[in-house]
Specification:
Elements: E1 16-19, E2 25-30, H1 41-56, E3 62-67, H2 78-88, H3 95-118, E4 123-127, E5 130-132, H4 134-140, E6 144-148, E7 152-154, H5 168-176, H6 178-187, E8 191-192, H7 193-199, E9 204-206, H8 209-224, H9 228-243, H10 246-260, H11 264-274
Parallel strand pairs: 2-3, 3-4, 4-6, 5-7, 6-9
Antiparallel strand pairs: 1-2, 7-8
Subcellular location: Peroxisome
Keywords: Acetylation, Fatty acid metabolism, Isomerase, Lipid metabolism, Peroxisome
Family: Belongs to the enoyl-CoA hydratase/isomerase family.
Amino acid sequence: MAEDPRAVETMKFKTVEIDLNRPPVAHLYLNLPSRRNALSLDSFAEISAAISALDRHPDVLAVVVSGRGTQFCSGIDLSALETIVSSAGSTATDPGRSRERLRRQILSLQAALSAFEGCRKPVLAAVDGSCIGAGVDLVSACDLRYCTRAASFVVKEVDLAIAADLGTLQRLPRIVGYGNAAEMALTARSVSAAEAKEMGLVSRVFDSREEMEVGVRAIAEEICKKSPMAVMGTKAVLLKSRDVSVEQGLDYAATWNSGMLISDDLQEAIKAFIQKRKPTFAKL
């Protein structure tokens, strides 16, 4: 049986919150303010489920991600980290099987945050307060990042005697450059909003949370005015081209546009331009 594309409207969550009151932009909140939005095992599962459901929702064309309370995300919940490590060896007498179980658990957490990148629709991170550890993994998987002057970013894992393993070391160098990413990851120092803007981690810095919410929503709404097919294709080609040669990226773009050029969206865009009106596109 096909999944209900509107299932997210009735889904219940403990650690995240979804606001669908102003489509076509959906707002996903990390919603554990009492724990500074630390990511528990439930958080990872709910993030994955929420993004998958928003990706399928026909009325949603862009997603904004932010945190409830004064912090964006304080990283992985340390009790969750302890549970993962202890459970990996709780029953296995074979060290090899124990490590294999731990590997699968890490892959599951990676997949939850990679869901932001895998979502067909653009995901915009709006950061206020601290963004630490797994929070940086999360925003690195988003398409666009914005923050307030009160924001700060820390790749914290080295202080916990581990290497960041949920996406930062793979994605951040492509966003801010190898040197900047390496310094952040090796020193675990705090990067201010101004420095984050300078190195390209965020596209814009807002004076307050209120200004950021208005500004980021306006950017998301502007994206939503474009052809959904073109936006989806642009995201897919950008991500593919990031990881392959220019020649391979061009070939992938040609494949995408061979489909785009026969879509109804192109005809509607041309007609709207000729008729000097705003185009109206069908849902995905």
